[in-house]
Each structure stands twice: as C-alpha cells, then as structure tokens.
Model the fold of this input.
Amino acid sequence: MINLEPYGEDCHEFHKTVVSKKYSKKSDPEYKERLNALDGQIEEVFEQYAELLNEDNLKSIAPYGYSGQQKTDLLSLYRYKSKILQELNVLLTTKDERKFNTCQMCTIEPVHSFDHIVPKEEFPEFVVNPINLLPCCFSCNGQKGDQWLIEGERAFLNLYYDILPEAQYLQVEFESYPIPIFSIDGSALDDNFSNLVQSHYENLDLFKRFRENSNEVIDPIVSSAKYTVPQLGIEKFKTIVEQSTNERRLKYGINHWKAILELELVNHDDFESLLA
Done:
C-alpha cells in the first residue's frame, strides 16, 4: 500500500470540462442548460471540500442537498470508461514514471473503477471531483459501498492525504503452518491513526482476502526453494528472499502483505518441511 499523488490542477475546471463534453438529447434539450446553471454552486462546494480536506476535517462535510432532476443530472456526469476519466485514472496511478495498476486500497486486485471517497449518492455534487475519486478495484468499491463514516469518524484511509507511516503495522502469524493469519499491531502508530488503519482493513475484509490469496505467495516461494535450496543452501535462499522482499517494500510500501508473508514464511521453523 502506497500513497498516491492527488490531482494537482483546478478541480472545478475538471468538472466544467466533463460538463462541456456532455450533449443534450432531443428527448431532453434542457439537460446541458440545467448542468451549466449549477456551476456557481458547484464551485462553492468544491472550495469547501478542499478547505475541509486541508484541515483534516472532511468528516464534517454536509451534502448540499441535491435531489430529483438535479441529482440525476449530476450523477450522469460519472462514466468510468469515458475518455476523460480514463485519462484521470492513468494520471493518478502513475508515480515516479511507473504505472501502478493494483488497487492500493487492498493491494490485491487490479484497478477497474473509482471509489468516491464521499459517496456519490449522498454527495452528487462531487461525482467527478478528481480529489474525491480514488482508483480502486471492484471488490473494494463494492465492499465500501456508500459507507465512509462510522459513528462520525472516517472508516477508510484516504491514500492521497493520510500519509502512511514508515513503520510495520501489518503482522502475520500461522494458525496451522503455512496458513497465515493477518492482523494489525498499532503500537507503532498514534491511537487515532491506529483506529483508522484497523477500520480500513476490517471494513474491506482485507485479513480474509489476504489469506484467501496467500497461495500467490506460498506456491512460488516453495517452488523456487525446491530448486534453489539444494544448490545454494537454506540460509543463502533466505538471504535472497529477504533482499527481494526489501526491494518490493521500497516500491510498494513497508506493509505490503505479500512481502511480509514471504519473510515470515521462509523464516518459520517449519519452512523446510514444505520442501519435502
């Protein structure tokens, strides 16, 4: 899991560009006119969103209250496969000239959608606000749904603005080796951030999803070890794995679940039993 760079241009101008690419239909000749009539309000609420975000107080934002035809018109602006949103997706998932096509909310599945950080059904005014759109996979988008607050507090990390710590908080133990159990150790985090991290992982069901996908790590490591250990020895193999996982953690975050699982797997007392 890594931080992504938020959209750095004028968000209101992005909204206006999306509107400009829409066309009224013969069956609804006033569609574009209705959207343009909302522009002054949209500019104001975009400014409020940015201010609250900068104050780390987005949880206090209130919906403008669009309903009926206005809400329908605003929601119609969002079409993930439209050219402008696909270009935004590429921009937001490119870091240090590398394209990250894996959802950073889970680091399991590929990006196939945008999560609306504050939900579009409740806040249709932000349906194409680029700092409210986070590239994600179908699973995370479906798991999160319209939930974003629990008891008045944010339930999910905002990977644009919640700076991930350079400390390992994701832990792996084994119930019955090599079947992993994942958990969060928040001792290296302050209480508020620890609660947010725990909530993010629990509400996206990440511990279960990591476990269900653990063979993506276990099978290649065991296969490689069966070939390498007889030639180089177990200690040399462990050193190679450690070097590889450290490089991966530099690219994909210190709490990358695959890297942590690899290290715990090969350093377990029973690892050699998997090679028989």
About this structure: The chain has a mean pLDDT of 93. The radius of gyration is 22 Å. The CA atoms of residues 156 and 200 lie 4 Å apart.
